Known about the structure:
Layout: E1 14-23, E2 26-32, H1 47-58, H2 67-70, E3 74-75, E4 78-79, H3 82-89, E5 96-102, E6 107-114, E7 121-126, E8 138-139, H4 144-147, E9 150-151, H5 157-166, E10 170-172, H6 175-183, H7 205-218, H8 227-244, H9 246-273, H10 275-380, H11 385-438, H12 449-458, H13 471-488
Antiparallel strand pairs: 1-2, 1-5, 3-4, 5-6, 6-7, 7-10, 8-9
Amino acid sequence: MTTFDAFADAKEYRFNKIVLVHSASAAYIELPIDTSCAILGGNNNGKTSLLHAFLLFLLPEVNFNDCGSKFGFQSNGKEHSGIESFKYYFPSPDSYIILEATNPKHTFCVVLHQSKDQLGYGRIAVPKPYAEIEHLFWDKQNPANAGEGAPRFDIGFTDVQKALLDLGGSKQIHRSDLREQLYNRVQVGRIDTQYCLVPLGNVSDSSIAALKTLLQLSAGLLPKGNGLAKAVASVISSSMSSSKDKSEIDFERIQEEREELRGKQDHIQRLKNHKPTWNSLTTECDKYASLKTKVTNDLRLLFQKALNQQAYHSTVTAENGEQLQSISEKIEGLRKERTLLNNEFRAVEISLGVASETKKTASEKVELAEKTLSSTTPVVQSSSPQAVIDYLTDYKQEREQRLIDLQDIDSARTRLRNSIARQKEINDQIDNLETLLKSDTGLLDQLDGQTGALIYSVNSNFSSVPALNDLSVIEACRHFATCKYSKTGT
Length: 490
């Protein structure tokens, strides 16, 4: 297969868009390339450099060392050095260039980023379209740029790399592996070909050199005048090299395909051998599915019945609750009514008792009145009740006045007796005092010798105290002397 034959299925391999983040003197560029596109701008504004960025994806390189030989970046006849190209495309750790592409397997993205190697850049291939990873590079919710959003400044390379790997991405590190990953057409069962960008029939140095020459020609990187001739010569050289190695390459591919077909045949045979088992399993699965459906329906029916029963019981419980509440209220009302009746009954009993006592008292009064009438009738000389009442009233007033007079006489007599007794007591005291004044005896003479000596030792002024006719004082002095002697022990 020649280099030209490799492009027979080129329509299945295409590039959709290229995105630059903090790269090529721009904060963010998203350029669709699956349709016709015109790039307008003044000189030295980066139009050509934007096209040169495709070489970073399509050539199996990992750094800008020997940049002139690898890429041949130039503008206005001046070739750019590796350090200039590196600082232009990857000026910071947050610089990214993303290519969205499609091959027969899927649509995917290749993300280029600054690496730790000298003037190096790395690759992460992600099996997702750019729309699913755009949030890592562009914030659509940001109101900047007339509501179109803004680049992400709040997420670093470490978080971006982790997010891409979590989405099934893989790193493309080694240059030798890049040749196979970039140029081997997609093949069933070969994971290393799922990110193929340019399918080459023969992945050889001559084929890659021819592709590089064509890319440089399309990007305007070949010298003017002989650029086209050089490109045609590279393609012819690649075709001749492919013809020389064709038999060998074809035999190897045939052997690979033969082994692949044999494996598929063995797999088909195993499937045929297990067909009865598979049919039996399918039948059992159908039975299981049918039984599961029946059980599910039964469970749904039972669940619905349970819900109905629950609703019924809830209704009955609510009704019974209302009836019970009503009965409880009636019982409480009857209890209160019984309490009131009991209180009324007690009040009636008390009233009956009071009435009985009143009746008894009235009977006694009537009996007394009858006796009074019978006893006073001869005196009053009349049987008229009013006459008897008038007589008794006068008699009562007369007796009350008599009682008051008697009480006054008794009170006067009592006061007189008390006055006579008090006068006698005072006279006795006067006589005693006169007797003591006339005598030469003192208080100490009224005491025994020991008590008098003790009293005198306490205060010598007691010798001038006259004798007293008060036994309580003498007794107090004796008691004092007894307490004193008991404390001193003498």
